[in-house]
Amino acid sequence: KQEVTQIPAALSVPEGENLVLNCSFTDSAIYNLQWFRQDPGKGLTSLLLIQSSQREQTSGRLNASLDKSSGRSTLYIAASQPGDSATYLCAPGDGQNFVFGPGTRLSVLP
Amino acid sequence: GAGVSQSPSNKVTEKGKDVELRCDPISGHTALYWYRQSLGQGLEFLIYFQGNSAPDKSGLPSDRFSAERTGGSVSTLTIQRTQQEDSAVYLCASSSDRGLEAFFGQGTRLTVV
What's the whole-number average pLDDT of chain A? Predict the structure, then answer.
């Protein structure tokens, strides 16, 4: 059974810092891995999808890396802004089901 | 529509009543997922539809829960004889095919009183 952990559980930083959010998963036989953000009381917004054959994906200030063999993914956020404040969720998928981590709650202070 | 649409956005029901939650996926998306997020908890997989294949129902918590997808598009999640522990946000997602990027709706917040 896939288990996902995310470190840190919460993070509070001043605006402008570069951030690293970590995700670990126990079953490396994944099809892909997707990063989402969730704002309070809202649904999930897709950030990046990495296929199992890929090492990283970039979108704007976001970069996600995947080390499938070691069961790790990292989300880098460059030059953080207050609008980045949200919960960030990591979800490795087997092609039919995503298993979600507990999330990292990020607060970026102006 | 441009995104995944769910209705109602909020539902309050009495214990023991049946409820139906609706999901309109992005047009043309063949894969559809239902998840549940209880207060302070992570997302819990419920069911997965892919095209005309038999759905993966492995996440449904009890036989009071069922879901169908008509015509490969709209999906309805039905909860019979609701219990207080069913209170949660029910989220629907779709993707254009198996293993591709999933897009979520805003969810239905279900409160059983």
Answer: 95
Nearest residue of A to residue B51, measured between CA atoms: A96
Residue for token pair 């990591």: A90
Query: pLDDT per residue over B77-100, tens digit each?
Result: 999 999 999 999 999 999 998 888
Question: Among residues A46, A99, A91, A97, which one has the least CA distance to residue A73?
Answer: A91
Cβ–Cβ of B91/A31 closer than 8 Å? Answer: no
**A98 contacts B99? CB cut-off 8 A:** no
Task: Note the pLDDT tens digit of each residue in B21-66.
Answer: 999 999 999 999 999 999 878 899 999 999 889 999 999 999 999 9
**Cβ–Cβ below 8 Å for A97 and B56:** yes
Set of chain B residues whose Cβ sits within 8 Å of the Cβ of A3: none
Q: What pLDDT does B1 receive?
A: 53
Of B32, B51, B36, whose CA–CA distance to B85 is shortest? B36
Contacts of B97 in chain A (CB under 8 A): none
Q: What is the DSSP annotation of chain A?
A: ---EEEE-SEEEEETT--EEEEEEES----SEEEEEEE-TTS-EEEEEEEETT-SEEEETTEEEEEETTTTEEEEEE-S--GGG-EEEEEEEE-SS-B-----EEEEEE-
